[in-house]
Fold each of these.
Amino acid sequence: MYNFTKYIEWPVEKQRGDFIIGIYGTSPITQELRIIADKKKVGTQTIVIKEFDTPAGLSSCNILYIPENRSAKIDEVAGSCSGRGTVLITDKPGLAKTVSGLNYIKIDGRQSFEINKANLEKQGVKVNSVLLSLGIIVQ
């Protein structure tokens, strides 16, 4: 997830203050992200990991990860984040075709990701062509 930050440009207002990675609900990935946040930055921004139980405050995130067990709420979450510079990352098949910008998938047991440029643009960010070449483009 951290590596995506190298290829995405957030709106100016999201390039100040802390770089917030939100997790909607709970996920094993949270602890891994905390370890990365202790060691890395996004540009000059300190990475802060936050867990959310409700959609309130989600639009403050630069990245919002929605685990598969919370994907039933994706439409509600997407509505609160649309156009606000929040990249939605999911891990349920089909979500990159509908609402998320990035979606983790497994192919032959290996981790990969789908990317939907149009959804990322709706989320208010610009994506570098390098990232497009690394993922599986869906529309």
Amino acid sequence: MGKRDPRVDAYIAKAAPFARPILSRIREVVHASCPDVEEEMKWRFPHFVHDGILCSMAAFTRHAAFGFWKGSLVTGTGRGPDAMGQFGRITKPSDLPSDKVLAAYVKKAAALNEQGVKVSRVPKKRAAKTLKLPSELLAAFASNRKAEAGFDRLSPSHRREYVEWITEAKTAETRARRLTQAIDWMAEGKSRNWKYERGARD
């Protein structure tokens, strides 16, 4: 027999009026499709567990969400871009698939857990943004290779700090002054904020 958690009852009762029928429908379909499922509160919202996490649901101010832990294997899609889970921003029960389709998903998720199937959760790597160097900095590097080498040895974040410091100057005079100072510091292998780094001396 499955297990219902009174904390889930309280969660549904406290949800916005539009979300209550959505959460209640999901709950009933999950229990009907997997009679041994148990409810738990994890990360402050309801989860359904059977040999591991099956799925979860949540209510927010203007939408609800529902998703499978192994979503890519269950529904063939990963987490959506605009909401938690595989079904987007749910604002009414009809935004979900039919009970028959949901039941099939729940049964598939349960079977995957029973078989011990794992999902590889490799974090997505963010594409590094190309740092565009201002023309005057490139010109300065052409006449000061030591500064250029010092700049190249800096971390991407430190290089970006220099570029932003120079390009965000309000006047041409300030920009020129910052460029001169930056070239001197780069030639010495210093970062833009080297004075505040541990062990730095004036």
Amino acid sequence: MWLRTLAACACMITAAGCATQVAYDYSKESDPRRAEYTVGPADVLRVNVWREPELSVEVRVRPDGTITMPLIGDIKAAGLPLSKIRAQIATGLANFVKPENLQVTLALVSASSYQFTITGNVEKNGTFTPSNYITVLEAVTMAGGPNRFASPEKAFIIRDSASGRPRQIPVDIERLRTGKRLEQNIVVLPGDIIVVP
């Protein structure tokens, strides 16, 4: 998947020199801030079971998307909201803890699965892992902004789609920086690649 995405990225960067901004419906892009957080690999969760300190643990979601709980064993976590994971834990512990004492809370300690990449003519290329969801303009700012060789008006995001094929979302960073075309300032999603030619 990564090789295919990087290959697509290379082709899109090559084509960016002659690309022009096209009409795009930014309103169809999802905003994960409006929904419950979806857990991903490398995230760290804190499980608290009332009056059961030996069952209260801090766990990291493994690359296979699971966590391991005392007494229960492995539980699927990646791709699920916190409420569903908490429900799974409570259901599993129901065989070991009296129902009247079974109170489970679940908290996100570290959202390490939220990663994206910025490449091209910015001051600092690389992969970034912010502590909360950010917008395109905030992401480019994290990378130090466009450098003197950049064509920020031709920037774009490479984003995976439901079909499995990456798609390109045009973003005019120059206009965003001057307060124009704010509809383009969409939220960066995990796995996005932001390209500034």
Amino acid sequence: MRHIILAVAFTLLQLLPVQAQENPIVTRMAEFIAAFNAKDSAALALFYTEDGAMLPPGAGAVVGRENVATLYEQAFKSGVQSIAYKILEIRQVGPAAVVEIGEATVHAEAGAVLSRSMHVWFLSEGTWFLNRDMYHVLGPVK
């Protein structure tokens, strides 16, 4: 029965438009953006799996919720203020895995930067969590 439910969910998720409110990844990203804009590093860390990893440009992997929270806290202390995010693509790659690609405008005291990201989401006990978060900076926003 579980396999049938997952197969139906897999099919439905592929049929939904990227911006559809029913899409759980769109919902999770909206919640993520709200936590980011509240500068809540602890809440942001809870969006990741226990072994979730951020892969920032030019640096080593940041693995685990505690380390992810620390990275966000450091970013906020360095002047990062808010984020605007646009989902470009959501692709289901299995019954419990999704790859999502988007662009972010990160606003900081020193100005705004445009970046592109690829997120790998895993479904666990009915909730989607970030397992891998990789991004690169495209440049300053003019």
